[in-house]
Amino acid sequence: MTKPLRIEIPLNPHVAALPPYNAGLNIAAAQKHCGRPDIAALASNENPAGCSPHVAVALAGLNPSRYSDPACTTLRAALSHKLGIPPERIVAGNGSEEMIAAVCRAVVCPGSLVAMISPGFGLHEIEALANGAWVEKVGMQPNLDFDVPAIIAMLARQPAIFFLSSPSNPVGPALDGESLNRILTAVAPQTLLVLDEAYFEFTDDDMPDGLAALSSTNISWVVLRTFSKAYGLAGLRVGYAVTSDARLARAVAAAKTPFNVNAAAQVAAVAALDDEAWMRSSVVALKRERARVADAVAFMGLSAARSQTNFLFIDIGRDSQSALDHFLSQGIIVKPWKEEGYETFIRVTIGSPTENDRFIDALRMLTTG
Ligand SMILES: *Cc1c(COP(=O)(O)O)cnc(C)c1O
What we know:
Homodimer. Its EC number is 2.6.1.9. Residues 39-363 form the Aminotransferase class I/classII large domain. It catalyses: L-histidinol phosphate + 2-oxoglutarate = 3-(imidazol-4-yl)-2-oxopropyl phosphate + L-glutamate. The protein is of the alpha/beta class. It folds into two domains: 13-50 and 277-368, Alpha-Beta Complex (Aspartate Aminotransferase, domain 1), CATH 3.90.1150; 53-273, Type I PLP-dependent aspartate aminotransferase-like (Major domain) (Aspartate Aminotransferase, domain 2). It is 39% helix and 15% strand. The strands form three sheets. A seven-stranded mixed β-sheet has the order 2-8-7-6-5-3-4, with helices on both faces. Strands 9-10-13-12 form a four-stranded antiparallel β-sheet. The protein has a two-stranded parallel sheet with strand order 1-11. Helix 6 (122-130) links the parallel strand 3 (113-118) and strand 4. Helix 5 (96-107) runs parallel beside helix 6 and helix 12 packs parallel to helix 14. It starts with 12 loop residues before the first helix and ends with a helix. It binds pyridoxal-5'-phosphate. Pyridoxal-5'-phosphate is lined by residues 45, 95-97, 121, 165, 169, 196, 198, 226, 228, 234, 239.
């Protein structure tokens, strides 16, 4: 008997048409590609110093056979204490990227307008599109600073969501207090402002705290933060959303999977919060290295955007995709940017001093070779 032909099942057209997320190479793939074991992984903005030693201690006491707490009660209580926000307004996620998805699922309807910055974070677009949104982008200025008037003009169109990552990924600058306040006064009551502060811990002391600025407004907002970057827990997947009100938090929580934050991630995040001193000292060391790499880049006559993050966005003056092989041959993974107008840019994470030296040498070789 011949098998009947399988009919292709209809797919959700929004999901079937999604652009891929540009996740880049992992260390094993890079090792295979260049045949060397000592890979400098500078494409994902992880913490080169690892994480607090309190995390390993906490993980050693874990019982993996029990389901994790779906409400993340202990973690949310610790965050509430740290931030001065009631736990009812905090939702923990499997990385803050899950919270981007949950916010979209909670708010976006087919045809909703969702706005974001370009160049920007791919998931702001992907998760909006997955829910049937129409996505519009606001460019950065030629000097790679935020274009505040253009952001305000977009807000006048009253999008359902405006995603703003400040500090910006991939560019690096953060909105100063005056710019942020101008933007906040332009947010309509119908618009949810999502301030993605994945790099909050790396900002200079004179930069505004988004949570504090938003708390004094009556707009609807979400602030996203993560344990992946400054706290060094990228592999465990834990981040969180702080919301303007408990109703919004309930909608975001309803849009996530029930046991989204696994037990290891929950205890690790609590332990990391308990050792802020480790995080702060690793940030101090990282900023020193960031200044050193930025100086070396400038000395080569290349320009990097001002950075309030743990990475630099550098115009290498040639197609960045084809420079990828050069860096890989030196055992270095960087992120070539692919958005239109930025094809000569790479985003490079600030690594350990040795990794940064290797990056500087490879960049010099590329630009003088
Ligand atoms: C890294 C990053 C995130 C996501 O981090 P998680 O690991 O999912 O917590 C979110 N937004 C921006 C802008 C980022 O750079």
